[in-house]
Amino acid sequence: MDHRHEHLYIGGAWVRPATDRLITPVNPSTEEPLGSVPEAVEEDVDAAVSAARAAFDAPDGWATWEPGRRAEVMERFATELDARAEAIATAVSSQNGMPVGLARQLEVGYPSAVLRFYAGLARSTEFTETRAGLLGGPVEVRHVPVGVVAAIVPWNYPQVLSTFKIAPAMAAGCTVVLKPSPEAVLDSFVVAEAAQAAGVPAGVLNIVPGGREAGAHLVSHPGIDKVAFTGSTPAGRAIAEVCGRLLRPVTLELGGKSAGIVLDDAVLDPAVIGEDLVRATLTNNGQTCFLSTRILAPRSRYAEVVDLVTGLARSLPVGDALDESTVIGPLVSAQQRERVEGYIAKGRAEGARVTTGGGRPSARERGWFVEPTVFADVDNSSVIAQEEIFGPVLCVLPYDDVDDAVRLANDSDFGLGGTVWTADPERGAAVARRVRTGTIGVNRYLPDPAAPFGGTKASGLGRELGPEGLRAYLQPQSIYR
Ligand code: NAD
Predict the structure, then answer these.
(1) In CATH, which superfamily holds the domain spanning 259-448?
(2) N or C: which end of the chain has fewer CB within 10 A?
(3) In angstroms, what is the span from residue 235 Cα to ligand 1's centroid?
(4) Which atom of ligand 1 has the smallest separation from the CA of 464?
(5) What is the best residue among 232, 254, 390 to mutate for testing ligand 1's pocket, by most ligand atoms within 8 Å of CB?
(6) What is 3-254+459-480's CATH number?
(7) Does the beta carbon of 447 sit less than 6 angstroms from any atom of ligand 1?
(8) What pLDDT was estimated at residue 1?
(9) Residue by residue, what is the 3-state secondary structure of 15-66?
(10) Which tens digit of pLDDT belongs to each residue from 378-415?
(11) Does the beta carbon of 39 lie inside 6 Å of ligand 1?
């Protein structure tokens, strides 16, 4: 595969970049270069913000369109994305190592579903209501678009995480400057083609592939009204500081270290819970923010749970992300592999026991692979139980009783996801209610577009998805009449 792009999608057109700087993504399965795209620098970001500003501020601009008309454009956009499903899936998979089967499920079908969901909400939401005032006259309460949005996303789910921002922003009447991560940019060019083919009006969506500097310039740009960020907790803190100083609204979807609580009645049969457990703990080679990577097992069944998790991890085919049979692909970069291997070394040094994996798969000479790795006898205060590893590494920890399990689950700086595994879903939901995270699943985990998704504590601020995700792009104006 060879992708070369020479222009940037700004103001509804393909424009010449300000410099000849390039981003050259590499295939983590093979270490081969994949092509090149222009790297957006400050001047390009300025041009993108101006285009988004003009589209938003125009007297007959996107923000003033009747919501149903915006919804039609969004639905056409979804259709154009679906028409490019295979190009997007292979672009994502060959850049970040996501197994291509997973990329087909999550990086194509899901984003277009989210676009259609928000198109529906654009139609059904009451953007203006009139309330009886307390002081005599009525009050007209309008929910108006917040303005020009800076959307900054990481490489692990470039399509899903972009759509979590673009879809509600478009439904609200906002315009967007999207900054993809340099590791996963090729797919954003397919998105630009789809937007153009769908007739998304000029300036409503602008794309500036670039690194941290472009992102930082965008966040503090005077033409931006709101920042929507997904990425690491340290970057989120840096962005929140800037937004705090500027009093600029910001939503942050950050890291996680979620708990998977296995209750004592769980059916520990790989044929029954294996697929859902792997999905909830190792999806995308462990490069997923919400994974239940701290598996909490009752002492009475600790050995059984360790055996189950070890057996599942050992059984997963590791291979080239574009190979249909692959379940665990490579990590996104050499640097990311080094980070993950550093954590494995720390886990060993802290006295935890590796029950499977712990190294590089011997069959793979190229590519940034790490074997699916399970640590048993992990202490919850240890580094591998507290920090986000972002690779295929799981910890299994024992607990005494349900109160102890809930205490351990909540003993984390993060609060994004989690799961409860049980034969009794009602009992599972009762335990789930005691866990202080933004989301949690019983016997499964996948963010549902109908419901808010996001984190507490160091996992972020605000929510995406659901009607709540639309509210994040609206602000109220009250007119006393
Ligand atoms: P990262 O924070 O390094 O980068 C994310 C994006 O932000 C990239 O586009 C990067 O160029 C940009 N960026 C970095 N520093 C910036 C700054 N100071 N100002 C503006 N932009 C900046 O994260 P990553 O390594 O690309 O992604 C992995 C992280 O993302 C993990 O911690 C993971 O948990 C998190 N994540 C969270 C969610 C969620 O919904 N909570 C989803 C996926 C990933």
Answers:
(1) Aldehyde Dehydrogenase; Chain A, domain 2 (3.40.309.10)
(2) C
(3) 6
(4) 40
(5) 232
(6) 3.40.605.10
(7) no
(8) 53
(9) ECCCCCCEECCECCCCCCECEEEECCCHHHHHHHHHHHHHHHHCCCCHHHCC
(10) 999 999 999 999 999 999 999 999 999 999 999 999 99
(11) no
